[in-house]
Amino acid sequence: MLPLHLDPERYFAAEPAQRRIAIELFATIRNLPIVSPHGHTDPAWFAHDAPFDDAVSLLLTPDHYLLRMLHSQGIALEALGLKPNDGGAYETDRRKIWRLFASQYHIFHGTPSRLWLDHTFAAIFGIDRRLTRDSADHYYDLIAEKLAAPEFRPRALFARFNLEVIATTEGALDPLLEHRKIKESGWEGRVITTFRPDEVTDPDHENFSASLPKLGEVTGEDVSNWKGYLKALENRRAFFRAHGATATDHGPATAQTADLSPADCEKLFARVSHGKLEAGDAELFRAQIMTEMARMSVEDGMVMQLHPGCYRNHNAELFRRFGRNIGGDMPNVGGFLSQLKPLLDKFGNRKDFRLVLFTLDETTYSRELAPLAGQYPCLTLGPAWWFFDSPEGMMRYRRMTTESAGFYNTAGFNDDTRAFFSIPARHDLARRIDCAYLAELVAQKRMEMDEAAEVAADLAYHLPKKVYRL
Q1: Which helix (H) or strand (E) holds 249?
Q2: Among 79, 255, 40, 81, which residue's Cα sits nearest to residue 167?
Q3: What is the mean pLDDT of the chain?
Q4: pLDDT surpasses 90 at 62
Q5: Three-class SS of residue 442?
C-alpha cells in the first residue's frame, strides 16, 4: 500500500527560517471561517440536503480541470460518463469510470488538481492510501459508504468546512427557486446568489436571441427598445438582491468599455436585438453594457466582477457535443488600461462603486492591473484564479502586484469552484501560500511579524468580507 499523507508544513519554503515564520503565521489563521464570495456550486445541494450520489458524479464529471487533462491524454469524455448532445453512447457504469480515472491519476502529478484531490481524500474522507489502479475499488466503496452517512450531507459539510458564507452564480433569467427554498427552510447556513447576465448582454452568446424576449417576459418590461432593456436588467438585479446577492459577475471577451450617447445606444441596440449586427457591433455592445452595469452598481451597491481575456469553448467539437464548462476555455491576451478608460472616466473615483478585476493574462499584473488598483478607489484585484489557482500562480501574483497595489487593494481569496469538496483544500492552499510570501518579507526584514500576522488574517478572512460587502 502506498501511503497518502498531508505534510503539515506543505507549500512552505525549504529555507528553515522562512519555514518557521510561515508555520507560525499559518497557525494564527488556519481555523478562520471560510468566506467563499465567488463560486459555482449548486444551490440545490443546500436546498434539498440530499446525499451526494457517488465518487464520479461528485468529484470527477463536474470538474473541468480533470476533464481537460484526461481528454488531453486521449480519453473520450463519453468514457468518463458525459452524455453527448448528439445522442451517442456513453459509459454509465460509475465504478468502471472511477477505475479508468484511478488508472490515469498519475497524469495529475505536479498539478493543483492533484493537491486538491489528495487533500479531499485524506482530510475529508480519511483515506490513508494513494489512489491507484489497485486502490480504485477501495476508494469507490469507502466514498460511497461515507456519502450515505448524515455527516456527509451538504448542510453538515457546510458546517464542517467552517463556511461562513458561500455565493453561487446564476444566469439572469434563473427564478432562484432553490435559493428561496433555502431561505424558507429556516436553515442557518448562508448561501447567496450572484447575478451573471451574459446570456442577455452578450450578442455572441449562443442563447442571446432566445433569452432577450424571455427577459421581457419575466420583468414585464418592453425590451424592444434600449430604455426598456436597461429597466429589465435593473429589475433582475433587484430580484437577485432580494435573494441575497451582493455581486454581479461578467465574462466578456475583452475588458473594453464604452460611453455612447443615448441615441447611439438606441441605434446599436436596434441592430443587436434584430440580429442585424454590423462589424464590431457585438464588441461595442458588450463595451457599453459594462459601463451600464457599472452605473447600476453605483446605484444599487452591488459589487461588479469582471474577468475578460478568456477564449471560450476553444475546442469546437467538444463544445458542439458536450456544451460549456468541460475544459475547453483557454487563457487569452488581455488588456485593461485603454479598455477600461471610458468606464473609469465616469466612475473610477467613486468610493461607492467597487469593481473587482480578474485576468487570465499574467503579463497584465504588474504592467496594468496593480498600477490601476493602486490609483482608482473603485478598483480591487481579484486573486490568481482558474489556470493560476496554484502554488506557483499564487506566488507570482503576490510578487507582481504587492509593490504597486499593496495587499489592501486585493480581494483576498475566492475559490471559483463547482467542486464543493475542494473548497477547504483551495482555501488551505491559498492561506499557506500567503503565509509563505509574508514569511519571506519578515525574514528579509521588510515587514514585522505582528504586521504579517494582521495581513494574513485580512487576506484569509476580513478582506473578502469587506470587498464583497458581506
Answers
A1: strand 247-250
A2: 40
A3: 96
A4: no
A5: helix
DSSP tag of 81: T
Contact 292, 347 (CB under 8 A): no
Q: What is the pLDDT of residue 303?
A: 98
> Residue 1's pLDDT band (boundaries 50, 70, 90)?
confident
Helix (H/G/I), strand (E/B), else coil: 155: helix
Please give the full DSSP string across 300-344, using - where no structure is assigned: H-PEEEE---EETT--HHHHHHH-SSSS--EE-----HHHHHHHH
Task: Answer whether CATH 3.20.20.140 is correct for domain 16-50+153-467.
Answer: yes
Q: Please state whether beta strands 163-167 and 191-192 pair in parallel, antiparallel, or not at all (unpaired).
A: parallel
The class level of CATH for 52-151 reads mainly alpha
Q: How far apart are CA 247 and CA 470, in angstroms?
A: 10
Q: Using one digit for the tens of pLDDT, what is the confidence trace for 287-299?
A: 999 999 999 999 9
Tell me, yes or no, if the two domains 16-50+153-467 and 52-151 fold the same way: no
Those residues whose C-beta lies under 8 Å from the C-beta of residue 351, and which sit 6 or more positions away, are: 377, 378
In degrees, to the nearest 5, what angle opens at C-alpha 269 toward C-alphas 324 and 240? 55
Q: For 140-176, give one letter per residue: b (16+ CB within 10 A) or e.
A: bebbbebbeeeebbbbebbeebebbbbbbbbebbbeb
Mean pLDDT of the region 222-242: 98
Nine-digit cell at 283? 464588441
pLDDT greater than 90 at residue 309: no
Q: Please, which pLDDT band fits residue 324 given cuts at 50, 70 and 90?
A: confident
What is the C-alpha to C-alpha distance for residues 401 and 407, in angstroms, rounded to an integer? 8
**Residue 276 contacts by C-beta under 8 Å, 6 or more apart in sequence?**
none
The one-letter code for the residue type at 323 is G
- Residue 418 corresponds to which amino acid? R
User: Measured between alpha carbons, how far is 62 from 47 in angstroms, rounded to an integer?
Assistant: 19
Is beta strand 379-381 parallel, antiparallel or unpaired with respect to 355-357?
A: parallel
Among left, alpha and beta (phi > 0; psi -120 to 50; other), residue 386 is left
Residue 447 scores a pLDDT above 90: yes
Residue 326 has pLDDT above 90, yes or no: no
Question: Where are the chain's structural domains?
Answer: 16-50+153-467, 52-151
Q: Report pTM.
A: 0.95
Residues 6+ apart with CB under 8 A from 239: 176
Quote the cell numbers at residue 130.
494513494
